[in-house]
Design goal:
The chain is an alpha/beta fold. The chain has helices at about 5-20, 25-30, 75-95, 115-130, 145-160, 185-200, 215-230, 250-260, 295-300, 320-325, 335, 340-355, 360-385, 390-405; strands at about 35-45, 45-60, 65, 70, 100-105, 135-140, 210-215, 230-240, 240-245, 270, 285-290, 305-310, 330. It is built from 14 helices and 13 strands. Helix 1 (about 5-20) runs parallel beside helix 3 and helix 6 (about 185-200) crosses helix 7. The structure holds nicotinamide-adenine-dinucleotide.
Length: about 400
């Protein structure tokens, strides 16, 4: 089993144990409602390729499945199942009328041009035609996918199924195709809000140093928001490595460098290994915003921060979590920290459903309020029940699902 599904199942178990659920309820919570494995034969760069994929609707008690679609060469059924489980908990915790789902195809995006991507989206629409829909299961972008993929998938799905519009079957679309302005920054905006709640609860000053692993869609925007909030960004990394300045990195120049050269490591700050950004002395808050399972037991042993905020999905292994707990380091779990994206998606979906434009201002206000409410409820529950934040978050999510059954 991959670390991600182990961590996702452990979160469900922690919540279920805390609620003293019987085996029947627990087994039902763990087992996906529906999973589809498929093969697509698609022409990429002039060659016909055989691409394997999965769409897993983990739980649809609270509404249609909702979750991203990733294109990644190493993706497998277990990774998708773990991510779908996490979406179930995340959507329930944010009090959205969505169940949890996720999908993935085993494909490297490195050499895909625009035409290839369109062909992949068309093949995906054929493969998933009867499996997804605005009231069944709604896609969104994830690792390796973006708004152009969602636009094409939505249009192609409408063609294949004969639906009058595909606007409601995928979110994270471009503005022209019915997306919302906020969606691109929604995850980072929600993460900032979760950090603001955590700072108050854990009594952390709003000007402490922060380190971020991952300088992509989430990490880069979050760095800008945190700097504007008064923090010093002391270390960041991307897939090429990390840079570090105990006095604070020059974010404007860093973004310029990243845009010009493709990497943060061309910036003239001290270079360090990518994973070491999470262990620098000057960071009181560290944010994994890149990959899953990066904080293992060794990294957990070296982290100097008071707070870990999981912007990425499943960045901490189960052993890593145990070690952080024994060292007294608080972890704001992914399901609470990175729900901003799916809350933005909810507003995009709602606008499609009601056939109206989406009001970005209203969506952002609701996003902040939902993150405030869900994170406050999690901190309250952890305090009142004497459990860690992940157990508290999973407990609240599971209660909502069971109440709706
Ligand atoms: P992205 O592809 O835009 O960025 C990923 C970043 O991680 C890139 O800067 C990449 O260079 C970096 N990276 C890759 N390997 C690395 C390594 N070994 N060390 C350090 N950095 C490395 O992806 P994203 O959309 O920013 O997503 C990041 C994480 O956040 C993922 O776990 C994703 O599932 C999660 N997430 C994203 C959203 C969203 O709305 N984009 C929502 C919820 C959760």
């Amino acid at each position: 089993m991959t670390p991600l599904i182990i961590a996702a199942r452990a979160a469900v178990k922690a919540g279920a144990d805390h609620l003293r659920l019987g085996t029947k309820d627990f087994d039902r919570l763990l087992a996906p409602d529906r999973e589809v494995a498929f093969r697509m034969y698609v022409e990429i760069g002039g060659d016909e390729r055989n691409v394997e994929g999965w769409r897993i609707q983990h739980d649809r008690t609270l509404g249609p499945g909702k979750g991203g679609m990733r294109y990644s060469p190493g993706v497998n059924r277990n990774e998708v199942a773990g991510l779908a489980t996490l979406m179930t908990l995340k959507n329930a915790l944010a009090d959205l009328p969505f169940g949890g789902a996720k999908g993935g195809i085993a494909l490297s995006t490195r050499d895909l041009d625009g035409e290839d991507r369109a062909a992949v989206a068309d093949a995906l629409a054929e493969a998933l035609a009867g499996v997804v829909g605005p009231e069944i299961d709604i896609l969104g972008p994830d690792v390796g996918t973006g708004s152009a993929d969602m636009d094409r998938f939505a249009a192609s799905w409408a063609k294949v199924t004969g639906a009058h519009s595909g606007r409601g079957v995928a979110t994270g679309k471009s503005l022209e195709a019915g997306g919302i302005e906020l969606r691109n920054g929604a995850t980072a905006r929600g993460c900032l809000q979760a950090i603001r709640v955590a700072r108050k609860r854990a009594d952390i000053s709003p000007d402490v140093g922060i380190a971020i692993q991952g300088f992509g869609a989430v990490g880069c925007e979050l760095a800008e928001l945190l700097a504007a909030d008064g923090h010093t960004i002391v270390a960041v990394s991307d897939s090429s490595g990390g840079v570090y300045d105990p006095d604070g990195l020059d974010l404007g120049r860093l973004i310029e460098t990243k845009n010009e050269s493709g990497s943060v490591t061309d910036h003239d700050a001290t270079r360090i290994a990518s994973i070491d950004v999470l262990t620098v002395d000057e960071a009181s808050i560290v944010i994994p915003a890149a990959l899953q399972a990066v904080i293992d037991v060794d990294v957990a042993e070296s982290i100097q921060a008071d707070l870990v905020v999981e912007a990425a999905n499943g960045p901490t292994t189960l052993d890593g979590l145990r070690r952080l707990a024994t060292r007294g380091i608080t972890v704001v779990p992914d399901m609470a920290a990175n729900a901003g994206g799916v809350i933005g998606s909810y507003h995009e979906w709602l606008a499609a459903r009601e056939d109206r434009p989406c009001d970005g201002g209203h969506a952002e206000k609701d996003l902040c309020q939902r993150i405030d409410r869900s994170n406050a409820a999690m901190w309250d529950r952890a305090e009142s029940d004497g459990v860690d934040l992940r157990t508290a978050a999973a407990t609240i999510a599971i209660e909502r699902i069971l109440d709706a059954r």
